[in-house]
Amino acid sequence: xxxxxxxxxxxxxxxxxxxxxxxxxxxxxxxxxxxxxxxxxxxxxxxxxxxxxxxxxxxxxxxxxxxxxxxxxxxxxxxxxxxxxxxxxxxxxxxxxxxxxxxxxxxxxxxxxxxxxxxxxxxxxxxxxxxxxxxxxxxxxxxxxxxxxxxxxxxxxxxxxxxxxxxxxxxxxxxxxxxxxxxxxxxxxxxxxxxxxxxxxxxxxxxxxxxxxxxxxxxxxxxxxxxxxxxxx
Length: 233
What we know:
Number of helices: 9
Shape: globular
Largest sheet: 3 strands, antiparallel
């Protein structure tokens, strides 16, 4: 049987991860931004110990926590005693570590620039273009860039790893830096090979954001069929 979840933080015991998640969200959305969270310091200070990069995040020591707005969303930021600061994901403090999930994110980040270039090229000077799935005209703010079936992102990644005879546990992820968005692949040669593979075989398309979210569950499961084979450069 799986081990039952139970975690005590600052004197509060949480029987489920959902309970802990809700308690953190209450702090995140109920407190004013850009002010030291003095009352919540004990809770957040113990919470950060659950982060996979806790040692790096804590550094020389934490002086205070604040809530800040980043790209329209609220997030936690910690301030160290030496004057430096960094953000941290509370979700990483709540969820179980999943290596495959971290590997996917690192490989996605490696081709992020390709996705941005594609998006900009599709819109060019146009204000709206048709969604590749529904045909509805969408603005750049209303769409996502999607990997067209059958070569979804997951299918391409799995085939690339198979071609390289690699398993997720073989992939090394670079250490997180302060204020860094996402985790990067530690192997620059592997990253370059993946970028070339993705550039050659990915079939990108513009899809309405709501439609893309509807398809995301199936996309994560992957689609039957193999990605095209190629010789890595």
